[in-house]
Amino acid sequence: MDIFIRSVAMVSRACGFVAGLLILISILVVTHMVFQRYALGQPTIWQTEFVIYALVASTLIGSPYVLLLRGHVNMDIVAIYAGPRFRFWLAMVASVGALGFCLLLFWFGAHYWYEAWSKDWHSDTLWRVPLWIPHLSLPVGIGVLSLQYVAEILSLVTGRTLPFGLPPTTGTEALTQSFPAHADTLT
After folding, report:
1. With left for phi above 0 and alpha for psi between -120 and 50, is residue 66 left, alpha or beta?
2. Which SS3 state, helix, strand or coil, does residue 139 take?
3. Cβ distance 64 to 137 under 8 Å?
4. How far apart are the first and last CA of the chain?
5. In this structure, are residues 132 and 116 in contact, taking their beta carbons and an 8 Å threshold?
6. What pLDDT shows up at residue 75?
7. Where does the chain cross the membrane (predicted)?
8. pLDDT of 41-59, one tens digit each?
9. Buried b or exposed e, range 24-45, using 16+ CB within 10 angstroms
10. Average pLDDT in the 59-84 region?
């Protein structure tokens, strides 16, 4: 089980690297587009479409890395005040529900990608990019995100991680540990 959890974490980190690389490439392509359009007075053909696809792919492919780092937006006020047992079950319900949603999205995304590939869809622009290429980011990103959720659930069940990453204390104690700079205003 440790090998699976570490392997998924490694793949999620690789996805984070790819997502960052796609953002960097998008910045360079936008710079190229602005230079080509305004400095050289030439039309741009592929740059806008490429940047849109790259940023969407960056979001989808980078999502497992965000989950690995717990960097997503979290409404944890209930979890902070909950007892350890309720916090565990709250984390399990949230993780299993998110995993179910991701599996559905993976299934339909893979079907959509396959349709784009098998029917040789192309964009309706002058660039005419084969649409299976940008559509591949949906099943890949959400597939790895699903694996990361499985690893998170296994880590929760086996006690390798704490629910929501919070210490096993409750109420004001948990808030003062989470926000030590404001401990005097919380009590």
Report:
1. alpha
2. helix
3. no
4. 42
5. yes
6. 77
7. 12-35, 50-68, 88-109, 129-151
8. 998 889 999 999 999 999 9
9. eebeebeeebeeeeeeeeeeee
10. 88
